[in-house]
Specification:
The protein is of the alpha+beta class. Helix content is about 15%, strand content about 40%. The protein contains 5 helices and 17 strands. Helix 3 packs across helix 5 and helix 4 crosses helix 5. The longest helix is centred in the middle third of the chain and has 15 residues. The radius of gyration is 20 Å and the shape is globular. The termini are close together.
């Protein structure tokens, strides 16, 4: 299956008092495996574009603008060939079939902070919640992860949230609601409390059953490392496992490290009008 992903990000800057003074910057992030046709288009000023890689291997495009402008438009257009099956079979290594298990010293060293929980849990509330999914002294590892993945929406309701940033896992549990990035962050922190390596993923979701024009959206989910199968995608927002209909763009320890576009300008806070983001995902015929 080949999907065409078109994401368009429009950033409008108000210049009613004065034009923002240069220099100002915009950064976009994506994985090298999606090094497709990509374009930075700055409407009123040409940009100096630099490509680098971050510590996770994501490609970072940094655009620097030397002249004032009132509007910035970034268009990223890429085609993705996806072979993930709807119902995958994961052939994990025999030594990790049962939970708890221990990673090999080499794997543990390579995973580093990906097995270390990120937020304080002073009353062990999150740890206790994560461990409530364990059914016995020896539990099937994949079944445990699928239970946590499927059980997220029993504790947290999905809601669209336009506020900047990601809620802490305890905030999401207390509010009993969150966006896809909040739910993914809760899932990641929960499995880290069980000693598993987890990372955040940012990308796109393709829904083949939706009506035309609404089949694509930006999305956030998680990946868990299990020897033998590698990084396995878990999408707790939709209770899905595997990469089917997911287009990963960037991976990192936490969501704040893989925001699709970041940037800044020199000017007054009220100079900013709005930012509009649209994503179109369609299956090529």
């Amino acid at each position: 299956m080949k999907l065409t992903v078109l994401s368009q990000d429009d950033v409008s800057l108000l210049t009613s008092r004065r034009a923002p003074a240069p220099p100002y910057h915009a950064q976009a992030t994506r994985q090298p495996r999606h090094r497709g046709a990509g374009e930075f288009a700055q409407l009123l000023a040409k940009a100096e574009l630099d490509w680098t890689q971050d510590v996770f291997g994501n490609l970072i495009a940094t655009a620097t603008f030397s002249h004032p402008t009132a509007e910035l438009e970034i268009i990223n257009d890429l085609a993705v060939r996806q072979s993930a099956t709807e119902w995958p079979i994961f052939r994990i290594a025999p030594e990790v079939h049962s939970f708890p298990f221990e990673y090999s010293p080499d794997d543990l060293a390579a995973l580093g902070t990906l097995v270390v929980f990120e937020h304080a849990d002073p009353e062990d509330r999150l740890r206790a919640w994560a461990r409530s999914f364990i059914r016995g002294a020896s539990t099937d590892t994949l079944s445990l992860l699928k239970d946590i993945n499927a059980g997220m929406l029993d504790a947290v309701a999905y809601r669209t949230r336009d506020e900047e940033g990601t809620q802490t896992p305890l905030e999401t549990l207390s509010l009993a609601s969150g966006s896809c990035r909040d739910i993914a962050a809760l899932f990641i922190e929960a499995v880290r409390h069980l000693g598993l390596g987890a990372r955040a993923v940012s990308g796109y979701l393709f829904d083949p059953h939706a009506s035309p024009g609404t089949q694509g959206a930006t999305h956030a989910w998680a990946e868990i490392y299990l020897p033998g199968s590698g990084w396995i995608a878990f999408d707790p927002t939709h209770r899905r496992v595997g990469n089917a209909n997911l287009v990963p763009i960037a991976v990192a320890r936490s969501n704040r490290q893989i925001m699709p576009i970041i940037g800044g300008y020199v000017g007054l806070p009220e100079d900013f009008i709005a930012m509009d983001v649209t994503a179109h995902v369609a299956r090529e015929r």
